[in-house]
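User: I've been trying to design a sequence by hand for this structure and keep getting stuck. Would you show me what you'd pick, starting by listing the structure so we're on the same page?

Assistant: Good idea, let's start from the same input. This is the structure you sent:
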């Protein structure tokens, strides 16, 4: 039996993710689990280098746990909050957010589409 055991710090099977503002790169992701290819729940690891990553409001909810690094996190209309290892962040459907990554950052995220 093959047990699906992963280590969040492994940089294997990483694909290019959203670039930091003003750059062509900066982040990488690795899918751990996906329920349904079209619109299912996704569990993934996201790694990013310092920079600003802005996200428009999306038709999904995301909850993530910071495993490494520090960032300033904000949602539309809110003051930035410093987050780091152990922080758990929930982003509701339709809420725009921004991460200003201060040091190499890694999170484990669960993304759930909301029709």
């Amino acid at each position: 039996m093959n047990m699906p055991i992963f280590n969040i710090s492994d940089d294997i099977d990483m694909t290019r993710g959203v670039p930091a503002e003003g750059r062509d790169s900066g982040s990488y992701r690795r899918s751990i689990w996906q329920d349904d290819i079209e619109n299912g729940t996704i569990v993934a690891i996201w790694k990013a280098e310092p920079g600003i990553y802005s996200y428009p409001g999306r038709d999904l909810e995301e909850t993530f746990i910071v495993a490494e690094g520090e960032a300033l996190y904000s949602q539309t209309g809110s003051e930035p909050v410093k987050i780091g290892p152990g922080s758990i962040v929930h982003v509701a459907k339709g809420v725009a957010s921004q991460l200003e990554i201060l040091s190499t950052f890694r999170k484990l995220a669960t993304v759930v589409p909301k029709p």
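That's my pick for every position. To get oriented when you compare it with your attempt: The chain has a mean pLDDT of 90. DSSP finds no helices and ten strands in the chain.
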